[in-house]
Amino acid sequence: MDRKRLLGMTPTQLKEAALAAGLPAFAGGQLAKWIYQRRVTDFSAMTDISKSGREALASLYEVGTLSPIDVQVSGDGTKKYLFPVGENAVEAVVIPDEDRRTLCVSSQAGCKMGCRFCMTGRQGFHGNLTAADILSQFFSVDDAASLTNAVFMGMGEPLDNWEEVKRVIEVLTSPWGLGWSPKRITLSTIGVLPMLKRFLDESRCHLAVSLHNPFGEERFSMMKVEKAWPLRDVVELIRKYDFSGQRRVSFEYTLFEGWNDSPRHADALVRLLKGLECRVNLIRFHRIPDFPYGSVPEEGMEAFRDRLTRGGLTATIRASRGEDIFAACGLLAGKHKSK
Length: 339
Fold this sequence. Notes:
Blueprint: E1 4-5, H1 11-20, H2 27-37, H3 51-60, E2 61-62, E3 70-73, E4 79-85, E5 88-97, E6 100-104, E7 108-110, H4 119-122, E8 125-128, H5 131-140, E9 149-152, H6 162-173, E10 185-189, H7 193-202, E11 206-210, H8 216-222, H9 225-228, H10 231-238, E12 249-255, H11 263-273, E13 279-284, H12 298-310, E14 314-317
Parallel strand pairs: 1-2, 6-9, 9-10, 10-11, 11-12, 12-13, 13-14
Antiparallel strand pairs: 3-4, 4-5, 5-6, 7-8
């Protein structure tokens, strides 16, 4: 019989698990403390639970933390981890930056969205990750104890797996879990409208929207989701929420030479986002096989940024990290280096 995984369960669910193992109800709170605050993965180490209780738990459950099967280290200090998920594998990236350690988290094996410029999207969809699969990325990296931030920008579309991602955010931000502030978490999406509204209503985390082209027809040529959830509808929904305080919204804009880097695109972006309290993050494109467009030179990126700034937008060029180990934006593919 396959044992159930406790990682990702709430105290209420852990209480039910404890009762099923013949333990008193308060053991659920003990389990939460051992798993989330003390990061213990072996029932035998949970010393305030009786030996017979630990044995009963071990017969029915496992904590369920996965260990990485491969780690690669970039010349800039970025680390990429490969985690097994069933017959598939997913990648998570730890990005160090002075006193910050940001974890780039995957939420799916592959992706349904099929964006032409993304290596994850090119491999197709292989399944949603469970809350335990996602939390393993937080608990099993070398820098687990020193992580300061998390971005759901790894493999997959987080809002296409919102129920599991929501459970993860609950664990991360609850006092019984890791106790993080929602301000430490950013979720990136192409704009899955029904779930985007739920995310905005049900969490206080920051939002990042993958925009990449302000013209609907042009965006559709690279991002087929534009047909189901047009960018203008996404922006219209976002305008209904308050981002003037501690919660932030940003728009991710990867620049491709000859496709979306002209003054015409910059001006349309200004018109689209005018009056919205936001930031535009300009991202360098990392060339991938069988793709018609290349990267925009540095001076072109700076000119695009400056035009947005003159139009009244806050725009920055995001530093590229981990390109030498294929850990940069759009390059995650969940493949072992030996393959």
